[in-house]
Amino acid sequence: MNLNFFKKIGLIVWKDIIVEFRTKDLFSAMFLFSLLVVVIFNFAFAPGTENVSQLAPGILWVAFTFAGVLGLNRSFVFEKDSGSLQGLMLSPVDRGVIYLGKMIGNIIFIFLVELVSLPLFAVFFNLSLFHLIPRLALVLLVSTVGFASAGTLLAAISVNTKAREVLLPILLFPIIIPVIIGAVKSTGNILEGKPLVETLSWLKLLTAFDIIFIIVSFLVFEYVVEE
Amino acid sequence: MTNLGYFMAAYIIVWIGVFIYLFGLQRSQNRLKKELESLKKILEEKG
Amino acid sequence: MQRNSLEKILIGITFLSLMASLYAIFFYAPLEATMGLVQKVWYFHLASAWVTFLAYAVVFVAGILYLSRKKRCFDILGYSSAGIGVVFNTLVLVTGSIWAKPIWGTWWTWDSRLSTTLILWLMYIAYLMLRTSSGEDSKGARLAAVFGIVAFIDVPIVYMSIRWWRTIHPLVFKSKGTEVDPAMLTTLLISLVAFTLLYLCLLRQRIALEHLKDELERVKEKIRR
User: Between C91 and A81, where is the model more confident?
Assistant: First the structure.
């Protein structure tokens, strides 16, 4: 029974990965989008050497947030339009399992985009963050789980309305304010080379957000997709 | 330092806000009631 | 018939208590020494904040009840309460700004309470937008209920994160609570009661409006047949 539960989640994640691997359009769109945000912010703020460490975390997270919204929207709009969401609903799995599968799929995509963008980001802003990558990856992962846990639920809500994609950022951004604050603060701390202890309280907040939103979304997801 | 202007502004805004909302509710209620009356009449004429 | 007279009593009591609170604010409560007259905005400001919070809590509870019982009345309750909450939330932001200008010399600071109030406003505007774009049927009701629950759970986390984000806390309500004049406290209490009653009145009107809409739909359905 227990094995079955994880196997079902794994199958849903695997399905999303296969679909994405065939087309690759979502990944490339998200990656280019985050790159474009960095370019635009560069011209808007013209970060010099003296203020780059203050501006960089904010720019990075704006880029990831917008790219993430793009990914979240695609993950459900595609399912809904191709009718495969209905197929998922008809299959003998719990609705909560579908939520977890979709959420993990979203985490993987967004996290990959972030990891690939990070080196380019370092080049553009002239930051040496090679030795910081393990710490940054930890922050990225914890924040992305928070972003995707709330984002998957709200994307499922917005795809069921008339406004569809337009509604997602309006629903999502106020909710994930704690994630954005925590992510920007922790990234800033790491870029400034502060010890990990100072980032710990932010990581705790982010983890609390992750846990609360995964549990709550798991419980209420069935009411969102119910026909 | 009396700040009478700020004080009055705050109170006027609160009252205007509440009353606009209340009047809005009343107006749409009346509109719906009228519509309901006319529809009921149509229903009666139909039999 | 009985319902109507009850409503009249509610409206009467609300009117009287609002008058009482106005009287208390203007003539009974003492003038604050340093802030002067503008401090009296505080009574309505805090009362509006209380009603905002109460209204959103009702949205949260109504959402849970709707998802577990699937009764239309809980959906109406949540939707109506959210609308009234946004009205009072707007009043909190506006009166707060008007108070802040002469006291701090600025209309707005990114203090944790102010920021959380603004984010609350954005969340429940989003709730209303979700509601209008998802339709009046049971699907729209379910989606709105879920969002109402998630948003309310998120509020304490938002407040905490903004507090940590801004560790330097500007002195706002410093020394309030320790040395508040009892007459001020009484006045505040009267205002809180009056605004809660006002909320109930508005809620009744708002719910009656939704019932009228439902009735209209039923009659239209009958005519079509």
Answer: C91
What does the pLDDT read at residue C172?
46
Question: How many CB pairs below 8 Å do chains A and C form together?
Answer: 88
Which candidate from A161, A171, A209 shows the least CB-CB separation from C157? A209
The model's pLDDT over C33-75, given as tens digits with 9 standing for 90+, comes to: 667 777 788 888 999 999 999 999 999 999 999 999 999 999 9
Confidence band, pLDDT 50/70/90 cuts, at residue C153:
very high
Q: Do A181 and C162 touch (CB under 8 A)?
A: yes
CB contact under 8 A, C119 and A174: yes
Chains B and C touch (3+ CB pairs under 8 A): yes
Instruction: Using an 8 Å CB-CB cutoff, list chain B residues near C45.
Output: 10
d(CA C46, CA C110): 18
The structure tokens listed for C64 are 């849970």
Residue A58's H or E segment, with its range, is helix A52-82
C41 and B7 in contact by Cβ < 8 A? yes
> What's the number of domains chain A is made of?
1
Q: Where are the domains of chain C?
A: 2-224
Rounded average pLDDT over A34-60:
83
Residue C132's Cβ-side half-sphere holds a number of Cα atoms within 13 Å equal to 8
Cβ–Cβ < 8 Å for C163, A207 = no
Smallest Cβ–Cβ distance between C36 and the set B1, B14, B42 belongs to B1
Q: What is the ipTM of this complex?
A: 0.89
Mean pLDDT for B4-23 is 88
Question: Quick check: A178 and C133 CB within 8 A?
Answer: no
Long-range contacts of A17-25 (CB under 8 A, 24+ apart): A17/A105, A17/A108, A19/A78, A20/A109
DSSP A94: -
The pLDDT score that the predictor gives to residue A7 is: 85
> Quick check: C212 and B3 CB within 8 A?
no
Distance CA C124, CA B9 (A): 26
Q: Residue C130 belongs to what H/E stretch?
A: helix C112-134
C114 to chain A, closest Cα gap in Å: 14
